[in-house]
Design goal:
rod-shaped, 6-stranded antiparallel β-sheet, 17 strands, 5-stranded mixed β-sheet, single chain, 1 helix, mainly beta
């Protein structure tokens, strides 16, 4: 969809804005395009701490509450990722280095929200008596808590429990841009590809021999960890065309958005269409 004013959004799934070819906004003069100091000379933006909302749906069931080797439960379910986006702006009217007065907007959906990651069924050995009380807590790749401890139940009650929880994990993400043409009609054409690598998320399952409130004294705690989102899980999105529609040589900005198209920072200036086209040719 195209409109005549505003910014250019390319929905992908949730992204913070980072600088073209850096992790910060570009401060280069508007006459100088920015490029990556890497094996690729294509202009790009990236962010290493992209927040990704996650909706977790987990199922627990106990199938052995013996003292030796200890209670055993199974854990399975799914994680549903929130979205992120890449927003682009084409403008012929510049005021200063990073300010524009009008632009052209294009919305492209690449990866919708609610992308599912299935959590395979996993056995968990408790090892603290035959009938412990069970909690679960969701943690990030660095072990930091992403939720409070959630009481699940007691082993002998374990015909089955279901837990839902919202959390936010992080990812590294990038978008790389290619200039296809800088014609006046129908307008400049560029394309981009994008990918995201998840930091990872786990569930910490806690077995206690009494039901004191969290933080109270316990005679024995046993903790087991199961994987919800594998660290390093990568998602790649295919090449997408973007039609500028605002003359043949506009200034081009790019930035990241959430799944609703809300910008997550200021856009980064990539350069003018014809300059980028000559450098990349």
């Amino acid at each position: 969809m195209c409109t005549g004013t505003g910014k250019t959004a390319a929905l992908l799934a949730m992204f913070f804005l980072a600088g073209a070819c850096t992790d910060g906004s570009s401060n280069a003069p508007i006459t100088s395009p920015s490029f990556a100091a890497s094996s690729s000379s294509l202009p790009h933006i990236n962010n290493t701490t992209l927040p990704i909302p996650v909706a977790i749906s987990a199922d627990f069931s106990a199938y052995d509450c013996s003292n030796n080797p200890g209670p055993q439960i199974t854990f399975s379910g799914g994680s549903f990722l929130g979205g992120y986006g890449v927003e682009m702006t084409f403008t012929n009217n510049m005021i200063g280095t990073h300010t524009f007065t009008d632009g052209h907007t294009v919305d492209l959906t690449v990866m919708p929200a609610n992308q599912q990651i299935v959590i395979p069924k996993q056995p968990v050995l408790g090892g603290t008596g035959g009938n412990p009380f069970i909690w679960v807590q969701f943690v990030g790749a660095n072990g930091a808590a992403l939720s409070d401890e959630i009481f699940v139940g007691r082993c002998v009650q374990g015909a089955g429990w279901h837990v839902t929880q919202s959390a936010v994990t992080t990812a590294s993400a990038s978008a790389t841009f290619t200039v296809e043409s800088c014609t006046n009609s129908p307008g400049p054409n560029i394309s981009f590809t994008s990918g995201v690598t998840m930091a990872g998320m786990s569930a910490r399952i806690i077995f206690r021999n009494n039901d004191n409130p969290v933080g109270g004294p316990h005679n024995a705690d046993v903790t087991r960890t199961v994987t919800l989102i594998p660290a390093g899980l990568s998602l790649t999105f295919p090449k997408q065309p973007v039609l500028g529609g605002v003359g043949g040589n506009p200034w081009i900005f790019a930035g990241f958005t959430d799944a609703h198209g809300t910008a997550l920072g200021e856009p980064t200036l990539l350069g003018r269409c014809e300059q980028l086209s000559r450098v990349l040719s």
